[in-house]
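#lab-general

N.A. 3:47 PM
ok so I finally got the sequence cleaned up, no stray characters, all 256 residues accounted for. can someone with queue access submit it? mine expired

B.Y. 3:52 PM
send it over

N.A. 3:53 PM
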Amino acid sequence: MIGQKGIPTLFGGIERHVEEISCHLAQDSKNDVFVYARSYYTPKKINKYKKVNVIHLPSLRTKHLDAISHVFLSSFHAIFKIKPDVIHYHGVGPALCVWIPKIFSPKTKVVFTFHCRDYFHKKWGGFAQFSLKIGEMIGCYLADEIISISNEIKKYVKEKYKRETSFIPHGITKEKDVSDEYIKKWGLEKNNYILTVSRLIRHKGLHYLIKAYKEIETDKKLVIVGPSFYTDDYEDEIKKISENNSNIIFFRSSTR
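B.Y. 4:20 PM
back already:
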């Protein structure tokens, strides 16, 4: 698995997706599953997680080079060290490197999961958007198999690239029930708060959520859980519009 930040999941939809898939695959003793992790995301002491092998590699920790530098190293490490039967790339950005196994290890099958058309996200500038579109093109043309997580993406790939994809939507795993005593230390009551869990980035629309919350009459608290990700200015913006409202609570996970 290449493209995710790592496992176990701290934040990120692709990370949760990869964790669920890799852990389920690893339950079969016939499978050896490897997930590449970025050094800042997954503690280096975790080399094995629920039978999944976790491989730590560095990245250039900047907004634009973090993912692609890690994917580039992971691709070469995979084909020359792991020598897997299948490499699975996640996302249009990481798909920029699909050419590496196709050239240097042509017998290795490549799967590309098309999660999202990320170039529509407002956090990216012109060059980044162009690069993401190129990644999409490389993944759709060169991958042996394409997985689409929505019917909209399946239709888009069929129309634009004339490729059939396997539609596999996201699922959920039911977690254990947790006592409501756990949330009382934050002044929360069971069934009496509104929760959103998300990275603090503009295209998630949290500023709309806060505005809507402030315009309704409710005694329920609004709880916003998640970190910024190279978007400290947006975090500052939404916290500013939440000032003087003690019922809006932020819980920030550290990512840096």
